[in-house]
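CHAIN AND CONFORMATION:

***
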Amino acid sequence: MVGIRRALALLILSLYFWQFLLTAFLGPEELFACFIGLAACYGLAFFGVAAEWFWARWFAMGVGNFGSLFLLTLLQVGFEPSIAILGFSHLAITIFLAGEGMAARYERSEATAERWNLQEESLTQLRRAVKSAGMSLPLLILYTLAPQAEFMELAALGLGLAGVAGLIRGRTWSLFALGGAGTIALLDGLGCFGAPAVGYMLLTPNGSLILSGTIFAIMAGSLVFIPMLYAKPMLRFLRQR
């Protein structure tokens, strides 16, 4: 059922792409950039999975993990149907794309092995890094673009986007870019650059679920741990050079 599971995951990703895109144009003007960024993130996951890029399954699973985090809010606010739908549908993305059969169409395919020739250790660490990036990038977008971006927040977003692009291409400098983005987000969440902005996310038809920008900043700061995944093999590679 690999084909059916992939089709269902693509369906959910496409639904959220269009939801965020339409919300960007119909929602509050100050959240336009935020929802455009989220739409772009889901669009990238959809296109990558559909095109069978070897890293896209990991990235989409990371996006699924991001949405699943909102299930934790049910413990505080009680059962809210729209939040439950958001969380469980994202959890379904991760479940649908999991498994060795699905991996055989992406990172373990013959085309990937011929082009990239990744060792098992490198493949495992790259999987963890891309999943973490897929989960952290939407958080970084919410932290930086909702409702209004400051210079340090834009710097974190720029480093994060550059880091994800470099990570997919296997560039060493991407680790430092992601680490820089995570450090800025974490320090901002701790109040080192002044009071963090309040982040918003439209979840219910009756209004917005208002979440503190501090939460987004600290969670987006998880990007700072990504370089640690590659630290050992990177040093070993540099010594060999």
Observations:
- The first strand starts at residue 199 and ends at 204.
- The chain has one domain: 2-240.
- Residues 202-210 have pLDDT under 50 and may be disordered.
